[in-house]
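#structure-requests
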Amino acid sequence: MLKGQLSSLHSRHSQQLASLKAKVAEQEKQATEMQTQYKTALGTMLRKAFDPKTGKVIPAATITDLEQSLAMKEHAADTARFRVLHLRAKLQRVQDSQRENGMKRSLHVVDFEHLKMENAMLMNKIEVRGKQLLEAQQQSQAAVHVLAHVKQKLHLEERRRAELEATLAVAQEKLRERKERGRLLKRQREKRRLRKIKMQEAELFEDPTLLAHFQDVTSSVVTSGDDCWIRLHDVTTGDMFAECPIMKGKPLTSSVEPVVDSSRYFVLRVVDRDSGRHAFIGFGFRERAHASDFAAALSDYQQYLKRSEEAAAMQQAFAAAESGEQGPDLPTLDFSLKPGETVSLKLSAKGPAARGSFLGERMVAMPTAEASPSESGAAMLLAPPPAATAQPQAAAQTVSGPLNSPSNSAVEAEQKITAKPDSEGDEKGDLSRADGPNERTPAEDSSIDEEFGSFVG
């Protein structure tokens, strides 16, 4: 801080000195110019002046001597002036020193107690500084001890770091070897995966364990009455491999359940006829169209059962209606006129309906007897349909399954699996799937449609 103040004072004084020097130089310049002008004017006046005694112009030598004498006088005056200024300054300094000496002589009687107090304060400060110095020395010694301990610990940590680096190098080498092994295994796994995908696309198995539990079979859906079976036969021998009966009164999925992620594979619940034990096996088709036909056959069987149940219910209802009793499944209907309601009939003058028309036939077939009113009001009961009055032998000749032949016997709709490669070089399939359904003649299709359209129970 003192250095800053000193530098600021020095700069300020330097600026003042520079300004004063500039003023002095300017004044000296002005004085020199005035002196030169004075000398020039004086010389001009002397050269133009006349001597009053002789009346002649003053000679040049006289003028020169006069100028020299004037210059000497000015020089002597300047010297005397500077001398006076110097002496005045010296006198000022002497007076100042005398004044200071007088003040010193007047201040020689100073309170000694004040000096002692100042001395005591200085001694106290010295003691405080000594204590602070001692504490700083102790702190420095403690810091030296701490630094020594830290240095030892640092050396120990460096040794441990070197050991860990060596261990890390070994671990990195092992990791590199494992990575190389992992990359090799990954490449092998990728090759195996691609090979597996190709084999799956070619429908082949490689695992001998799977081949031991694999069987090429032909499938057939057999119906007899309301019963239905899915039978699997060996391709080579034709013997029955397994049989899956469709359980009545339960959902179809309890016997045949499709796979979630594929439409060509199913799970069958096969049952042993002798022991009654059952097992679940996987069952699949090579072609999606064959799987669709298999599912459609099962769906037709379900629709057949549904239509049979509806036909039986309708037959019971019509039988109850003929006997004058209200059927259990038919609610009592009230067709009586409400209070305030009227019925208006508009009869046309046309003749009877044309022969052969559907309305005319129905009008002829309707009974002419009046309907007996029920307890809840007047009700009209229609005659049963012609199918209800058919002979009982028709019920025994109806088709119970979706794939029955016209002779109403159990005919197997076989879907055979091709085990040999085709002419284009396809490999042998490894999954158990069935070929498409057997071709049917138009007569068979029409007979099946007619039988499924019957509502006879």
